């Protein structure tokens, strides 16, 4: 378990580091192609942060409303409450608020910017189709997302994607706004400027795609990390592995989910992970790989 946790933390760190390198590379080209220099990067970061800050601080409310989740009282589902309370004590964090989605498709997710403002959401199908050991595995996985501040990590990734998209867009627009003037500068400065312009144009086109792929890769690594941490909390990896098998075997899509919220769930609620391209652009690693990692513990 400790090896799996350490490996996933390292991989997440290097993915974010690569993300930062991509942003600074774009910023350098942006400064070379325009007269804004470092001020262009600062302006892009400010806009990206402002755009995402509101969503970050209201993320749990927005997601709960979109998912049509309802709050749960202890007397309604004491079984669920007992599991959540016990695992919150094991994780050493405040007990998250519990919500339920009235849907027979088994699934669950966690949200909230920190442990003090966190929620765990499960579907009725999850409570009906999993036994206690399997339910504990799923709740432990979601509890680990909360403890590991995965919402914060994802928000940082979203900000980075926003910065990359803005810089790429500005580079492309700079060609439209100052194309003739820039071609004149290129003739004056020689082949080096031409290379900068060509490489900058290629980066501007390909960087948003690369940024999206990196964001998805970070999301997949956080799922592996939550699996490992969840197994650490329950001390029983087969419980979560068995739950994942049941969730994978259930082919019913979750009606309350959509592309914007799919990454939050423990498994893809849209049931469209087949095919190499879909897996490449998926926020979840293949379930068979997650089960194999758990079985190695």
What does this structure look like?
The chain is mainly alpha-helical and 297 residues long. Helices cover 70% and strands 5% of the residues. The chain has eleven helices and four strands. It has helices spanning 2-33, 38-57, 59-67, 78-91, 124-129, 132-147, 150-189, 191-234, 237-249, 276-280, 287-295, and strands at residues 70-71, 97-101, 108-111, 119-123. It has a four-stranded mixed sheet, with helices on both faces. A hairpin with a 7-residue loop joins β3 and β4. α1 (2-33) crosses α2, α6 (132-147) packs across α8 and α9 (237-249) runs antiparallel to α11 (287-295). The longest helix is centred in the last third of the chain and has 44 residues, at 191-234. It is elongated and about 70 Å long.
Topology, element by element:
Blueprint: H1 2-33, H2 38-57, H3 59-67, E1 70-71, H4 78-91, E2 97-101, E3 108-111, E4 119-123, H5 124-129, H6 132-147, H7 150-189, H8 191-234, H9 237-249, H10 276-280, H11 287-295
Parallel strand pairs: 2-4
Antiparallel strand pairs: 1-2, 3-4
Helix pairs in contact: 1-2, 1-7, 1-8, 2-7, 4-6, 6-8, 6-9, 7-8, 8-9, 9-11
